[in-house]
Amino acid sequence: MAINIDIESKTFTLHTIKSTYQMKVDAHGNLLHTYYGPCNHGTDFSYLIAPADRGFSGQPAGAARDRTYSMDHYPLEYPVHGNGDYRIKALKAGIVGSVPALDLRYHSYQVTEGKYGLQGLPAMFAAQNGDVQTLQVVLKDLYEEIYVTLYYGVFEKKNVITRAAVIENRGKEALCVTRAMSMALDFLENDKELIHFYGKHQWERQYERTAPLHGISEISSTRGMSSHQHNPFVILCGRNTTEDYGDCYGISLLYSGGFRIQVETDQLEQLRVVCGIDDDEFKWIVGSGEQFATPEVVLCFTDRGLTDLSHDISDAFQSNLIRSIWKDRQRPILVNNWEATYFDFNGEKLVNIARQAAQIGLDMLVLDDGWFGKRNDDNSGMGDWQVNEKKLGCSLRELAERIEKIGLIFGIWVEFEMVSEDSELYRSNPDWAMVIPGRDPVRSRNQLVLDLSRRDVIAHLKATIDKIMHLADIQYVKWDVNRSLENVFSGYSPSLSQGAVRHKYVLGLYELMEHMAENYPDVLLEGCAGGGGRFDAGMLYYTPQIWCSDNTDAIERLRIHYGTSFGYPMSSVAAHVSVCPNHQNGRTTPFQTRAVCAMQGAFGYELDLEKLSEEELAQAKAQTEFYRKHGELFHKGRYYRLSSPFENRDFTAWSYVSQDQAKVLLSVVFTDLNGNPKTLRIRLKGLDAGAVYVLEGKEYTGAALMQAGLVLPVPKCDYDAWSVLLEKQ
Ligand code: DGJ
Questions:
Q1: Are residues 61 and 41 in contact, defined by beta-carbon separation less than 8 angstroms?
Q2: What is the pLDDT of residues 550-566, one digit of tens each?
Q3: How far is the first Cα of the chain from the last one, in angstroms, to the nearest whole number?
Q4: Nearest Cα to 128, choosing from 110, 161, 155, 162?
Q5: How far does CA 29 lie from the centroid of its chain?
Q6: If you write DSSP's letter for every residue of 357-370 in order, what string do you get?
Q7: pLDDT at site 553
Q8: Cα 413 from Cα 547, distance rounded (Å)
Q9: 299 and 313 Cβ atoms separated by less than 8 Å
């Protein structure tokens, strides 16, 4: 049974194939967190809690005489502000007019088949009958009619447990919530390290592994989006954990707005993790009879190392989070005109690129920014979604038809969430932009953010989506956003709590994305936020792939892809071959290396195909043919990180292994050149040890390839690549 309940001792135990998770109601009615780790059956882990009088750690109601009992050092399932716990909390709320204080005690529970949903929010779902069960544990405040339901979705076979909390006000007075985290997770010992993924625009998801501080370590975004700077996915792992061995916990928040993940080492060297919505400006009023739902968080534990963790998360997202029909389909190989032309194009130029694309064998042309309104640079036109027929020399439909005649399908770029002050939309609806009245707004890319908390803005944008989607046969949409939020003020309703606007913005965004998903289910939707500024699991619910970074340099992408691969399926990583010297960093790399790197995800080209040399053209044809031929391997194969670009100076290597272990694509990019070079070798992973694999006419056993490895060729030039296919005999 995935969910095991001992009614007498009020112990709730959740099982997946690799983990056990346990909580228990104690004699005072508090819900303790007693265990999360390797599979265990039949143990009540509360014996590990050692009561002791810890000075200055007070007693909650009903326990005054027991000085060994305090919320300040007991492991708790959903810690709240106001009952004597001085660590980081999951929930901070109080009746309006009073001070924040709650004392939640156990009320009831319920187990149901299937998966709970969260209104208006992304959430994992059951893919087939019986693959998930839901546990609800209801807590109630001792004094007020405030209920908190903790939701657990147990995907036993997928090795994933989801969590969310719903706060419900059944009392008469309004409740003011200033912090509502999706989860807290307490560990009795701090024997762990934190892996997280930091960065900046054009340099997302850089891997860092560190010991948590005494005090609070924080990974967060106050930017209104999950951000380039931090990612709402972290790993806690044992100090000795490697790719192949050891305990690790993956924590992934399904949320695309600002977030906060905190890790606290407390006075007793215990560890607490909390994860949820950014609460910097958060203030949500839960009126009488109302509810507030937190976003969902996905937990995954394995004792088999980081590769296994990535595989489990990736599989679970692939089958139970991504909904698009494209998740199981090979993605079209595309050419995008952004780095080819930027804003400087016309219909003729696009058609010429399409002709060349057809020669190469590509599937789709994507028309990027600049096709609408007065938009010849990024200072104006945003919000005016009228086709610039003068620039294109024809209607969008005519352009798409010309491209179709050449043999390509047609895709388009949009950025619905933003507005330029120099636009008709802004001139007619200035109050639709989020600015603080009386203050000059913070501008970024010289644009403002539309107030997606407003119903009229959402209605306008839904109508805009429908209008655009009927302009031509559009088979792909790249949904971009190009600034962080700041001065988030909504002029919509004076009674609205301004502290609610950031979250309402995200709910508005999800509503628009849902509109896309529902009405245009066949369209391939690609997420984008100036590259990978909103690369999060929440987005995957709507977009099966995301533009991974505005940095298209193959060598910097090695690190970006490496970091991304820890928490996301590689099929969701959009990656393109671009021109050299690279537009972002000036580096020159071989054409083939650029393709090898870009084949780590949803593959395409983003350069002026008309300017390719004969040799490059022939290479592009061969690359396209290769990617298409082995599409299944790229799309559904297991991805192995074989070396770390953060540790290995000489090369970065990875592989794709087909589910049946019959095909292996090994790729190596050399990152250093030496005179009299040492011999480099690489060990493969995930092969059938007993089988024989053939590479370039030579035979190797799977065991030898995994235990001793292969000798790598000597690189012939800067950033040379070696990508080879091994096939089982
Ligand atoms: C940022 C994206 O990441 C780019 O690929 C491109 O679409 C530009 N925006 C267009 O403005």
A1: no
A2: 999 999 999 999 999 99
A3: 41
A4: 155
A5: 36
A6: HHHHT--EEEE-S-
A7: 98
A8: 12
A9: no
What is the CB neighbour count within 10 angstroms for residue 521? 12
Task: Give the containing element (helix H, strand E) for 539.
Answer: helix 537-540
Question: Residue written as tokens 């297991």?
Answer: 638
Q: Residue with structure tokens 């501008």?
A: 443
Listed residue (553, 646, 639) closest to 601, CA to CA: 639
pLDDT digits (tens, 9 = 90+) for 422-481: 999 999 999 999 999 999 999 999 999 999 999 999 999 999 999 999 999 999 999 999
Cβ distance 251 to 234 under 8 Å?
A: yes
Taking the centre of ligand 1 as the mean of its atom positions, its distance from the CA of residue 531, in whole angstroms, is 7
> Would you state the structure tokens that stand for residue 115, as one six-digit string?
């998966």
- Tell me how long the chain is: 729
Query: Which amino acid, one-letter code, is at 451?
Result: D
Continuous segment of H or E residues that includes residue 489: none
Check: CB of residue 206 under 8 Å from CB of residue 197. yes
Give yes or no for a contact between 364 and 333, defined as CB atoms under 8 angstroms apart.
Answer: yes
Residues 6+ apart with CB under 8 A from 436: 487, 489
| pLDDT (0 to 100) of residue 494 | 65
Q: Which residues of the chain have pLDDT under 50?
A: none
Q: Which residues lie across from 215 on neighbouring strands? A: 265
Neighbours of 108 (CB within 10 A): 11
Give CA–CA dist 593/577, Å, rounded.
Answer: 9
Sign of CA dihedral 121, 126, 131, 133: positive
What phi-psi label fits residue 319: left (phi over 0), alpha (psi between -120 and 50 degrees) or beta? alpha
Q: Helices marked H in 395-528 — which ranges?
A: 396-406, 424-428, 455-469, 501-519
Would you say 593 and 556 are in contact if contact means Cβ atoms under 8 Å apart? no
- How many Å lie between the centroid of ligand 1 and the Cα of residue 357? 20
Residue 635, φ and ψ in degrees, nearest 5:
-80, -40
Q: In 3-state terms, what secondary structure has residue 100?
A: coil
Q: What is the pTM of this model?
A: 0.98
Measured over the CA atoms of residue 228, residue 230, residue 231 and residue 235, the dihedral's sign is positive
Catalytic residue list contains 536: yes
**What DSSP state is assigned to residue 432?**
G
State how far the Cα of 238 lies from the Cα of 160, in Å rounded to an integer: 19
With beta carbons less than 8 A apart as the criterion, state whether 522 and 544 touch.
no
Give dist(CA 181, CA 255) in Å, integer. Answer: 12
Distance from the CA of 132 to the center of ligand 1, in angstroms?
Answer: 38
Q: Is 567 left (phi over 0), alpha (psi -120 to 50) or beta?
A: alpha
Residue among 366, 376, 413 to mutate when testing ligand 1 (max atoms within 8 A of CB): 413
Residue 487 has phi, psi (to 5 degrees) of 55, 50
Ligand 1 pocket mutation, candidates 414, 550, 552, criterion most atoms within 8 A of CB: 550
Tell me, yes or no, if 193 is annotated catalytic: no
Residue nearest ligand 1's atom 4 by CA: 530
Tell me how far apart the alpha carbons of residues 591 and 623 are, in angstroms, rounded to a whole number: 10
DSSP 201-229: TTEEEEEEEEPPPBEEEEEEE-SSSS-SS
CB-based burial of residue 613 (10 Å sphere; 0-12 exposed, 13-18 middle, 19+ buried)? exposed
Helix, strand, coil percentages (3-state) for the chain, rounded to 5, are 20, 30, 45
Q: Give Dmax over CA atoms of the chain in angstroms.
A: 85
Amino acid, res. 135: L
Give ∠ CA 205-206-211 in degrees, rounded to 5.
115
Residues 6+ apart with CB under 8 A from 220: 230, 258, 259, 260, 261, 262, 278
The backbone region for 42, taken as left when phi is positive above 0, alpha when psi lies in -120 to 50, beta otherwise, is: left
Q: Which residue has the tokens 């008309």?
A: 610
Structure tokens at 502: 């950031």
The confidence score (pLDDT) of residue 549 equals: 98
Residue ID of nearest Cα to ligand 1 atom 6: 338
